């Protein structure tokens, strides 16, 4: 039997046994079919008989036949490229189409006969619907199909080998996710903190401690001291490049560098140089010791250091403090302070603050409500609640708490603290809030107070300029100019003098 669209050509398949015998109920011969030609499939015993009655060429679908569906516009046109008949045909699958009058001839291993072939059903674009599931293509060796009568392909799909049609208005195969507009983030964070290196002193390329100590030795040797050589050298080295000079000096000259510097220099310039020769943690431990020992206590120094250092830095400070001074920092604080201020300092000295960056806004609101209930919204003040939240929560979380508190209460938290507390605990709590809210603005305020008025608090000035020169000095300069309308560089120039001023200005890094 010929397939529509295939011209009869010489050299076809040789006759084989086991073909489809002509049976009653096949397509009747009609005018216009392809007659058997020489070289086609010749009639042979058991082969495909040259039966008149192939598919008639009909526009737009199958011809109307007895028992079939009437022809409809939009069916499958005859196409070139069908499957050639194979030996043995398709075996009949369980659950196939039952034989019907006028369908395909029922043969062993073939498709069961149906009335008029595939029924044409009206559908979008003229594509006919496939028969219902429950049979379908049979699985045969070398043929297409799925065992068990499973249907192959899409219902109403194209013939094998035909391209998938483009359905109008169909969505993309893999549409991209829609771009979501602005909304509440699932994991909101506190105010953005500037990232990257914000220090004013940077590593000097190719610095060598052994060569550097030669410069220092030459500057201090003989009559007089070349202070300019010392400040130029130290002012262009970072802490990690300055500290190794102490060991290199002792290795090279068998003398203590700190001792020699103290013997050659004087005043605030000496204090500044010695501070720069210590590691940051050693310097902090030394400053805490100076703030605690003696008759009075520098509470501002204690709260400044403990509220602005990271957990790792505080733990390192406490380790150095114990090894250097034979007493724990906690014991030193406890013996020199009292009340809620002591509790505040002891809590901060543990170095156990939460340091996660993520912020849960619902928890921030809860903490803001707790602070309001512990202060403004009650008679008296529950300082312990303030202590618990301000000393344990992460800094990004606390920044969110401060925002929520101001929205809820209509007043900044530090102003509420001033209304509810007094003395050292008030100063300490306010300093913690300010330092966490904006660390660089807090240090800008500290520097301004140190240089404001008749005298200069050089200890505070030296400590901040040394400790922040490799952390956030650029931000401090920016906030200083914003708050006071005058650059930090200019204020230092007008409030200090000599080599002390020159080295401070090197730590400052420039004018804004």
From TrEMBL:
Lineage, top ranks: Eukaryota, Metazoa, Chordata, Craniata, Vertebrata
Cross-referenced Gene3D superfamilies: Annexin (1.10.220.10)
Skewed-composition ranges (Low complexity): 112-122
Organism for this UniProt entry: Pleuronectes platessa
Gene Ontology biological process terms, A to Z: cytokinetic process; phagocytosis
The protein, known as: Annexin
GO cellular component, one term: plasma membrane
Region Disordered, residue ranges: 1-33, 112-131, 141-192
InterPro entries in alphabetical order: Annexin (IPR001464), Annexin_repeat (IPR018502), Annexin_repeat_CS (IPR018252), Annexin_sf (IPR037104)
MF-aspect GO terms: calcium ion binding; calcium-dependent phospholipid binding; phosphatidylserine binding
Record note on domains: A pair of annexin repeats may form one binding site for calcium and phospholipid.
